[in-house]
Specification:
Elements lengths: L11 H15 L1 H8 L4 H25 L1 E2 L6 E2 L2 H26 L4 H5 L3
Antiparallel strand pairs: 1-2
C-alpha cells in the first residue's frame, strides 16, 4: 500500500521506515487496550529497530548478492547470509524485549505465570 508508491526497493531509505512508522502508530491502541497505556515510545522503538534492520538488509542484499548471468540465478556470499541471520536475530530479540517490557509493561516471568 505504501511500499511501492514510495519507490519500493529503489528508495528503501524512505519506503521501509515510513511503512514501519505507520505500523507502529497502528499498535498504540493495542497496548492501551491491554495495559491502559499507549506506550508510543515503546512501539516506536520496536518498529524503528525492525525498520532499520529491514532497510540495512535491503541495501546490503542489493550490494552483496550477485546475479549469475549463465542461468539467471542469484548467488549469495555465505558470510553475508550469516551476518544477515545475526542481524535479524539481534533485531528481533531487541524488539521482543522492548515489546514485553516497554509496550506491555510485563516480564517473561509474569507472562509464563512463574510469579
Amino acid at each position: 500500500m505504501f511500499y511501492y508508491p514510495l519507490g519500493g526497493k529503489g528508495r528503501a531509505f524512505l519506503s521501509i521506515p515510513l511503512m514501519f512508522l505507520l505500523n507502529a502508530s497502528s499498535h498504540y491502541s493495542v497496548s492501551e487496550a491491554l495495559v491502559g497505556d499507549k506506550s508510543e515510545l515503546g512501539w516506536n522503538v520496536v518498529f524503528g529497530a525492525l525498520g532499520l534492520a529491514a532497510t540495512i538488509e535491503v541495501y546490503c542484499d542489493s550490494f552483496f548478492e550477485g546475479i549469475n548471468t549463465d542461468d539467471g540465478t542469484r548467488s549469495t556470499n555465505k558470510w553475508w547470509t550469516r551476518v544477515r541471520f545475526v542481524l535479524a536475530s539481534a533485531s528481533l530479540r531487541f524488539a521482543a524485549y522492548t515489546l514485553l517490557h516497554k509496550c506491555l509493561n510485563s516480564s517473561l516471568h509474569s507472562l509464563l505465570g512463574l510469579q
